[in-house]
Amino acid sequence: MTIELTTGAERPGEDIRDIALSLIDVPEGRRALDPDWVATLAAEFKIAPQRTAIDLLQVGERYQLVTGGHRFAAKVLAEHVSIRAVIWQARDFAHHAQIKLVEIAENFMRRELSVLDRAFDVAAWRDVYETVQGAVKRGGDRRSKSKLQLATLIDDDTLRMVSEQFATTFTVEAQRALGLSRDAVFRLLKIARIGEGNRQRISLLPIANNQSELLALQGHPAPRQSAIIDRLLDGAASVADAIAIIDDKPPMPVMAKWEKVSETFSRLPASDQANFFSLHEDAILQWVASRKG
What we know:
By secondary structure, this protein is α/β, with parallel strands linked by helices. The protein is built from 15 helices and five strands. The protein folds into three domains: 16-106, Conserved hypothetical protein from pyrococcus furiosus pfu- 392566-001, ParB domain (Alpha-Beta Complex); 113-246, no CATH class; 258-292, no CATH class. Helix content is 53%, strand content 9%. Helix 6 crosses helix 8 and helix 11 crosses helix 12 (239-246). This is ParB-like N-terminal domain-containing protein.
């Protein structure tokens, strides 16, 4: 059974060749590779041929990797000398931003992307949007922002405008399928501010797929982020635990689920609390009856 899973497909008329691995350069800033997946693909390549070509951009006598990072690394691990690739030329792209979009599109449509990878892909996608549409200028009234906006903004007006415009480039159906509502874009762009160096350090840790933990990490300056990550790599269970170790303080107690709901409920306006009571009326009446018994 072969397990090489990709989103690409070779089409008639494409320039498809076997390219020496030594001639391929991997650009910086790509998502970290899963070593287990690389090893799995390498084992497959030793017993079965490569079924789907990677994408390369020809740059003079060398080639730049566009898509297929795991397959490329697996070929290297399997000690092969070449890899099947679709060769693209600079004239095939309107500008360099489109080359990045090919990589983003392939990555983003895959369900195994972590929250961290999605955040950096959204940030790169946003950069492409601004390349085409032009950078959004600052403006607006800070006082008019909602609590949610204030909680998720990075650069206030600029990020709010970019996020709103970027989200509306997708259909409503696409927003639901990809999870790219305006508020989701806010949070993902905020996570992307963690920075490439720290991204690589945490990309294979549990925190990479925990949005609340990533947002907590992002809220600290870069040097403190690095110190927190050091503790996470040493086994700290959460950002809060890492901070407790750094500051030599007892860790914050973990709240039970009902305590979290209670804390949120206590901050709701009276109208929202009434809506909550209505929604859970049967459970509330059952609890009241049990107290009377």
